[in-house]
Design brief:
about 55% helix; mainly alpha; 6 helices; about 190 residues
């Protein structure tokens, strides 16, 4: 298992900083962004080490956002994202790991690990996945706080990432088969 290459991430942050200044970005603003990147790079290192101590491989790939492969004990995070976004996604995917074996977990039994094609077409299935996503974000925040890589000052940016990501799941869940039977989802009254 490869360890986190802090020097590589730092070099990339410096390159972004110098390109921004060459492109005419305000030097103070660009420098603040670079300092922020360094903070999140150090935080990434801490979380990657936490993952490695649990035999979880962390791979930075070209794929956008992130994904957790429970069977392979692997987390993939976009290598193209900012260090702050990478940290948020890594913590979230670690949250999926902390949830544990979903096959034995009553709360998410109809979610990701359910292979029944009939179940996968149900709104129940989508709600279980949505509920697990909320829980993974919650556990990711708690892990980041426990490891000391997130503080109360990080709550707003973490929540921005969380809300943006959950929004895609909410939109996906709202398109579940059978949803169109309801006139106004807020009211929840069937329209037959």
């Amino acid at each position: 298992m490869a360890t986190f290459d802090r020097e590589l991430w730092t070099a990339r942050a410096w390159e972004r900083h110098t390109k921004a200044i060459q492109a005419g970005t305000d030097q103070v603003r660009s420098t603040m962004r670079w300092i922020e990147d360094l903070k999140y790079i150090d935080a990434l290192r801490v979380v990657v080490e936490w993952c490695e101590a649990r035999s979880l491989a962390v791979v930075f790939s070209k794929r956008s956002d992130g994904i957790y492969f429970a069977a392979d004990k692997e987390i993939r995070v976009s290598g193209r994202a900012s260090p702050k976004h990478q940290l948020h996604i890594l913590l979230h995917e670690s949250g999926h790991h902390l949830i544990g074996n979903k096959e034995k977990h009553q709360r998410y039994g109809m979610g990701y690990t359910n292979d029944d094609p009939h179940v996968k077409r149900t709104f129940h299935h989508r709600l279980d996945i949505l509920e697990e996503e909320y829980e993974a974000w919650h556990r990711g925040w708690k892990l980041g706080s426990r490891l000391g890589v997130l503080s109360k000052h990080d709550k707003v940016p973490f929540d921005r990432t969380r809300v943006r990501m959950l929004r895609t799941y909410i939109l996906w869940a709202s398109k579940a088969p059978g949803y169109e039977k309801y006139d106004d989802p807020a009211e929840g009254e069937p329209v037959d």
